[in-house]
Amino acid sequence: MYQADQIKILLVDDEPTILQFLEMGLRSEGFQVMTAEEGISAIQTAREFHPHVVILDVMMPGLDGFEVCKMLKRLENVAVIMLTAKEEVDDRVRGLTVGADDYMIKPFSFEELLARIHARIRNQFPQLMNELTIGPFSIDDSRREIRYEQRTLSLSATEYELLKYLVIHHNRVVSKAVILENVWGYDFGGQENIVEVYIRALREKLDDRDHQIIRTIRGSGYRVDLS
């Protein structure tokens, strides 16, 4: 995993309410965040800030998102996630053609955006990946290992991703639907009870008989409590 405070994110959107919402959410996750409301200032900010990820709206006054994306890709080693209210396939194709690394349609969930940011960092900035310690857990993405109280857990690939997701989002309730989206994938066609099966397996491996490590929040989901 990586330390979030190592990651710089530039938000570019001409809607102040969206900028404020995303900036607040990403700062709360620990990221360094800068914002811009139009294309020229976005390019200027990128030159000074050197972001790892740019969240870029398509429809803006002056330079649109497609032009900004092309200029950013010439200037920086940067991951660009484009946002648009349009659903036309042509826009998505054009965005990817000019260099965008991912594409999201408004409205979208913050959790989905966060998952895509994590994916882009893993894929494009592997040098930032290292061992992350959170409470009694140590997550080593390079070795695909998680240790709990210095004990290396024997985990399947899915168990590893699920426990990592819960630990990274510790002290926060995450629903089964959110877990399915972020661990199994957006097009997962199975049943939500698969989450219960994997939670049970993790509790056994953590020796969590009393459900004090992975708590069930009835009617809401699961939460890992760490002080």
Quick description:
InterPro entries: CheY-like_superfamily, OmpR/PhoB-type_DNA-bd, Sig_transdc_resp-reg_receiver, WalR-like, WH-like_DNA-bd_sf. With 227 residues, this protein is an alpha/beta fold. The chain is 41% helix and 21% strand.
Can you offer a commentary on this structure?
The chain is an alpha/beta fold. The protein folds into two domains: 124 residues, 3-Layer(aba) Sandwich (Rossmann fold), CATH 3.40.50.2300; 94 residues, Arc Repressor Mutant, subunit A, CATH 1.10.10. It contains eight helices and eleven strands. 26% of the residues are buried.
Order of strands, main sheet, comes to: 2-1-3-4-5
Number of helices: 8
CATH topology of the largest domain: Rossmann fold
CATH architecture of the largest domain: 3-Layer(aba) Sandwich
Essential attributes:
about 230 residues, alpha/beta, Rossmann fold, Arc Repressor Mutant, subunit A, 8 helices, DNA-binding, transcription, phosphoprotein, Response regulator transcription factor, phosphorelay response regulator activity
Give the topology, please.
Layout: E1 8-12, H1 16-28, E2 32-36, H2 39-49, E3 53-57, H3 65-75, E4 79-84, H4 89-97, E5 102-105, H5 110-124, E6 131-134, E7 137-140, E8 145-148, E9 151-152, H6 157-168, H7 176-184, H8 193-205, E10 214-217, E11 221-224
Parallel strand pairs: 1-2, 1-3, 3-4, 4-5
Antiparallel strand pairs: 6-7, 7-8, 8-9, 10-11
Helix pairs in contact: 2-3, 6-7, 6-8
Pfam family, one: Trans_reg_C
Domain Response regulatory: 8-121
Keywords: DNA-binding, Phosphoprotein, Transcription, Transcription regulation, Two-component regulatory system
